[in-house]
Amino acid sequence: MFESLSDRLGGIFDKLSKRGALSETDVNTALREVRRALIEADVALDVVRDFVEKVKERAVGVEVIKSVSPAQMVVKLVHDQLVEMLGSDAQVIDLNAPAPVPIMMVGLQGSGKTTSSAKIALRLQTRDRKKVLMASLDTRRPAAQEQLRVLGEQNNIATLPIVAGEGPTQIAERAINAAKLGGFDVVMLDTAGRTHVDEPLMLEMSDIKKATNPHEILLVADSLTGQDAVNVAKSFDERVGVTGIVLTRVDGDGRGGAALSMRAVTGKPIKLLGVGEKADALEEFHPERVAGRILGMGDIVSLVEKAAETIDAEKAALAAEKMRKGKFDLEDLRDQLGQMAKMGGMSGIMGMMPGVGKMKKQMAAANMDDSVVNRQVAIINSMTKAERRTPKLLNASRKKRIAAGSGVQVSEINKLLKMHRQMADMMKMLGKRKGGLGGLFGGGMPKVDPAELEAMQKSGQMPDMGDLSKGLPGGGLPGGLSGLPGGMPGLPGLGGPKFPGLGGMPGKGKKKR
Predict the structure, then answer these.
(1) Cα angle for residues 219, 221, 224 (degrees, 5° grid)
(2) Per the annotation, does 503 bind a ligand?
(3) At what angle do helices 3-17 and 287-294 cross, to 10 degrees?
(4) Cα-only R_g, the chain
(5) By CB distance 3.0 to 4.6 Å, which of 130, 212, 254, 259 could disulfide with 224?
(6) Does residue 405 contact residue 382 with C-beta atoms inside 8 Å?
(7) How many CA atoms lie within 13 A of 274 on its CB side?
(8) Is there a binding annotation on residue 250?
(9) Residue 216, by phi and psi: left (phi above 0), alpha (psi -120 to 50) or beta?
(10) Is 493 annotated as ligand-binding?
(11) Annotated binding-site residue? 109
């Protein structure tokens, strides 16, 4: 969502970094560009003015213009102000109340209330071990109650039985009573919406609030609606009293202005982000991390947390043991590619790595997307078990059979095998070193503390991926990045000359002559 804003700000700061020292004129010119970039990103005008004024107050001081790296100081000031605008500290859903805790979901029709209710319920049930009951109070939209029931069945979450003819307030009261009798910890109340804010809607929300006394009232807002989402947030907060905001469709191509404006305009924290269609595609909102992503600093903390959540520790330990013995077959490679898909695919991982965000356009130009990974998994699946475990068996006739089975050219199979050989050689080399495989696949390395990583990121100690790649064979990153729990899957097919810092990997780079 923040890609266009990130690109604009990145270009502004790149110009500053080419200057050895900055004058007040340089800073003013840069801030004018920042102002224009924020307005184009659909950030509210009042918020932009306040943002630029606060940065300017700090930026024109002597400590910036005479500092060792003035451009970096300006970036830091913009980063700090972004964090302040987004809310400084992350705030999660508050369950500190007598059970059952009522959570009321409000918002306009089509903003994603029902799916968000199911996502939050699943998150509370799996991560927080809470017993959750969902109830649909939407009697206006056809099949709204049925939709929530189906989502409950799919994700093994209890839903309130549907009784025809009941009004929203009656359903809400029945849900609270059912939760008390059933020993539930949380009740999700999915309310009705309208195409726009109107008086009947607000009266209905007020009646439900009086009947249930919700501990949390979460406003669900579509991030693609831009400034209108900010106006909706103000209306709901004035009439109902919102305690937090859930932004949906953050994975879309919106300009991001709603997210940047909403916290500043309403004063209410953004608590969760909907980042996809799947039931588990929900993230906590961390202002520090989002600001880092916008300014191209990456979000290594979220990447580590995602790795810890998605990677099977037992499977990882077995893989690490195989590596120590110098074994790395195509089944292991397939597992790595599967792990990459679970963590959001190649683009998702690259977007969170510091110093690598600028390579997205190069990846797109080289047709490097998640379809490449899917094709490589298809190739491996078209092999027999013996071929996957002993790639040396793959002669010309076997390759033709696999190519026909997976719908690719033989040349793609050769690229995959070349990548596998290089990764296997690297694993063998690392395995010979004392503790060389400690961080790969979770093999014997102590768990990474996200809080410690976040502190490093704040203090500027987090290394740039471009610097990390120096000195590695071929000038590139290994197929697994040490230090991440469960290991980081290799980045297949990235060509050396096109992607600085990833040159050790096979792919679309120029052939050696």
Answers:
(1) 170
(2) no
(3) 70
(4) 26
(5) 254
(6) yes
(7) 26
(8) yes
(9) beta
(10) no
(11) yes
Alpha helices (H) along 366-481: 370-381, 385-389, 396-406, 410-432, 450-458, 465-468
Q: Is 298 annotated as a binding residue?
A: no
Shortest CA distance to 54 belongs to which of 29, 33, 36, 79? 79
**Is 25 assigned to a binding site?**
no
Q: Is 292 known to sit in a ligand binding site?
A: no
Whether the CB-CB separation of 288 and 458 falls below 8 Å is answered with: yes
- State yes or no: 251 annotated in a binding site: yes
Q: Residue 29 annotated as binding? A: no
**Does 114 appear as a known binding residue?**
yes
Per-residue confidence of the chain (513 residues) as pLDDT tens digits? 566 677 777 777 777 776 666 677 877 888 888 888 888 888 888 888 888 888 888 776 655 655 556 667 777 788 888 888 888 777 889 999 998 999 999 999 888 999 999 999 999 999 999 999 999 999 988 889 999 999 999 999 999 999 988 999 999 999 999 999 999 999 999 999 888 888 888 999 999 999 999 999 999 988 887 777 788 888 899 889 999 999 898 876 666 677 678 888 888 899 998 988 889 889 888 888 777 777 766 545 555 555 666 666 666 677 767 766 767 888 888 887 877 777 666 666 665 555 555 555 555 555 556 678 888 899 999 999 999 989 989 999 999 999 999 999 999 999 999 988 888 887 777 666 544 444 444 443 334 455 555 565 555 444 443 333 333 333 333 333 333 333 333 433 333 333 333 333 333 344 444
Is 224 within any annotated ligand binding site? no
Q: Is 461 annotated as a binding residue?
A: no
Structural domains in the chain, sorted by start: 3-86 (1.20.120.140), 101-297 (3.40.50.300), 302-475 (1.10.260.30)
Distances (CA, A) of 358 to 8, 25, 31, 361: 11, 27, 21, 7
Side chain identity at residue 482, one-letter code: S
* Separation CA 160–CA 148 (nearest Å): 9
pTM, two decimal places: 0.65
Chain-centre distance for alpha carbon 204: 35
Tell me whether residue 112 is annotated as binding.
yes
The Cα–Cα gap between 487 and 479 comes to 9
Q: Is 389 marked within a binding site?
A: no
